[in-house]
Specification:
With 565 residues, the chain is of the alpha+beta class. The protein is built from 16 helices and 21 strands. The strands form five sheets. Strands 11-17-9-10-16-14-15-13-12 form a nine-stranded antiparallel β-sheet. It has a six-stranded mixed β-sheet with strand order 2-1-3-7-6-8. Strands 4-5 form a two-stranded antiparallel ribbon. The radius of gyration is 36 Å and the shape is extended.
């Protein structure tokens, strides 16, 4: 019986595919399956939009069945298409319900909070919608069946809120539910069908004309040239305004951080046959991000705060900005204030005992941007938390999506720590904040009265002081780099470091003409010909350098035909 058990186990673990399995799998990979029984069920822990594991799940309810999405992925899609990506039916963001799920910290798997069993692809899973209709707790059907349905106790197992079995219990996964399996079948997703159709159209366009390698290369080159010509036309006006910026001195990486990052020409020429051989190993020019990082580091080292004042129609609010902890966010906020982006703007969202939010553009057609254009990264620090009223923090749509909007807390909000960047606090005007909190709001949390920022005034900002210090530091590094280069040149010419050499531009040109190769001068071979040139007020004079470091050249140098080598 022992050997029979081994044989049965080996038969189950076969290391081959049958012809039917191979045919079905090939149809799944190609997406050309037309049979109804071939399905590609979506794994439970994956988003139906991105087809990748989710971190902040939300669900769309459809006939007491739920489809799970990633919150950061579904919102932009709904804002653009106003439709469900799975069914293609019109929907809004209000129809999404946030899922509260428990995760095993050791394995990283989602699990039932009651039975502590992991959610697998064959587990029957349900969600219980809470009374606020915006959140739902997720359990295994086994736990709900035993503790709720059989006991006729229709109370949520965690919150204790009563729920309706028919309307509030949503099935998320059930292998025996054909309708739910069809909804969770990747082959029926509308957005994947659209992508597949688009890919097929592009493939058909490319297959219409069979081009040779040379012809396709020429066509690609012509397309690139058209794009470059269009970009040049678009940059003509921009180049006129950027003339002053082009006159700024170049900043190199070794001058910025002290670490030399080369342009890669030397290493590239030695490793690639497509590049010309070169010995240029000079430092490359620093990027805008590297210059900004150095500026932010200087702001941190200064350990100074900034101060901004909001003049509102309810009174004055003064903020202290933490430039020493969150310099990037503070720099963005101060830059927007100086450019007047917050002037005449309104606080568009207010939730009592929570926060008030502002910074949204008044014009709906205006695109919300940061001071640099794109969104920027978060700056979290354990010293800055959402503790108490008057905390100034950035509003975002997910990790590293900070732009312009901000909010001020009415009370502590510890659940926002390390999710939103705290960069300031109210130092004067908490009474004004309390008046704003008392203003009633509608169902969409919009204040019924206008809460307006008349103007934003920067009282003190350490940005200019930090920029000046950084400019001086970079200038010192550039001077040191220039002196070291001059010392190496003098040493290569065979001069002692204690000697003073003053050469005019004309004499320097003459000296460079007699250099052989890159480093070896003729004067190093003919020692007696090396002279020091000095243009003084008394006149030009020259004398031989007696204390030369150069190795004396042999008296006779003769090469034959190398036959004796």
């Amino acid at each position: 019986t022992f050997y029979e058990g081994i044989m049965v186990k080996r038969q189950k673990e076969k290391q081959y595919q049958s012809s039917v399995e191979h045919r079905l799998n090939s149809q799944l990979r190609s997406g050309s399956s037309r049979s109804s029984h071939v399905t590609r069920p979506l794994p439970f822990d994956c988003c139906a939009m991105t087809l990748t594991p989710f971190t902040t799940p939300v669900m769309r309810v459809w006939n007491s069945r739920g489809i799970i999405f990633e919150n950061s992925a579904i919102f932009p899609y709904i804002m653009k298409h106003k439709a469900d990506p799975v069914t293609g039916i019109t929907m809004t963001s209000r129809e999404l319900v946030a899922l509260q799920m428990d995760k095993n910290e050791e394995t990283g798997q989602w699990q039932c909070p009651v039975m502590n069993k992991p959610f697998l692809n064959h587990t029957k899973i349900v969600a219980i919608i809470q009374n606020d209709r915006s959140n739902a707790n997720v359990y295994s059907y086994e736990a709900v069946s035993e503790l709720n349905l059989k006991a006729k106790n229709y109370c949520d197992l965690i919150s204790g809120e009563k729920f309706n079995r028919d309307t509030d219990m949503i099935m998320l996964q059930d292998p025996n539910d054909e309708e739910l399996c069809r909804l969770r079948d990747i082959n029926h997703f509308k957005h994947t069908d659209a992508l597949r159709q688009q890919a097929n159209e592009m493939l058909n366009e490319n297959q219409n004309i069979n081009l040779s390698v040379t012809a396709s290369r020429i066509i690609d080159k012509m397309k690139r040239k058209r794009e470059e010509d269009g970009e040049k036309e678009g940059r003509k006006t921009g180049n006129q305004s950027n003339k002053d910026e082009s006159k700024k001195p170049k900043i190199f990486t070794d001058e910025l951080t002290g670490v030399s990052m080369t342009n890669g020409k030397a290493s590239g020429s030695f490793t690639s046959t497509a590049l010309n051989l070169t010995q240029d190993n000079s430092a490359r020019e620093a990027t805008e991000e590297e210059i900004l990082q150095a500026k932010l580091l200087a702001l941190k080292k200064m350990k100074k705060k900034g101060f901004v004042r909001f003049n509102t129609n309810f009174g004055v609010i003064d903020f202290e900005l933490h430039f020493d902890i969150a310099p990037r966010t503070c720099l963005n906020f101060v830059g927007l204030c100086e450019k007047g982006f917050y002037n005449d703007s309104c606080f568009h969202r207010s939730i009592r005992n929570f926060m008030i939010q502002g910074g949204k553009p008044n014009d709906k057609k205006e695109i919300e941007t940061s001071i640099w254009g794109d969104s920027f990264c978060d700056e979290f620090d354990d010293r800055l938390k959402h503790s108490g009223p008057g905390i100034l923090s950035m509003a975002n749509a997910g990790p590293n999506t900070n732009k312009r909007q901000f909010f001020i807390t009415f009370k502590s909000a510890a659940h926002l720590d390390r999710k939103h960047t705290v960069f300031g606090r109210v130092v004067n005007g908490l009474d004004v904040l309390a008046k704003m909190e008392a203003v009633p709001t509608d169902k969409k949390d919009r204040p019924t009265l206008e809460l307006k920022i008349i103007n934003a005034e920067v009282i003190y900002s350490p940005v200019e002081e930090a920029a000046e210090k950084e400019r001086i530091r970079i200038q010192k590094r550039a001077d040191l780099k220039r002196r070291e280069k001059e010392e190496r040149r003098v040493s290569a010419l065979g001069m002692s470091s204690m000697e003073v050499v003053r050469v005019t531009q004309q004499d320097e040109k003459v000296m460079m003409d007699v250099i052989i190769g890159k480093y070896i001068p003729k004067t190093a071979i003919h020692r007696n010909e090396l002279v020091e040139v000095d243009n003084s007020e008394d006149g030009n004079y020259a004398h031989e350098l007696k204390n030369s470091r150069a190795v004396p050249a042999p008296k006779t140098t003769k090469f034959g035909d190398f036959s004796g080598w």
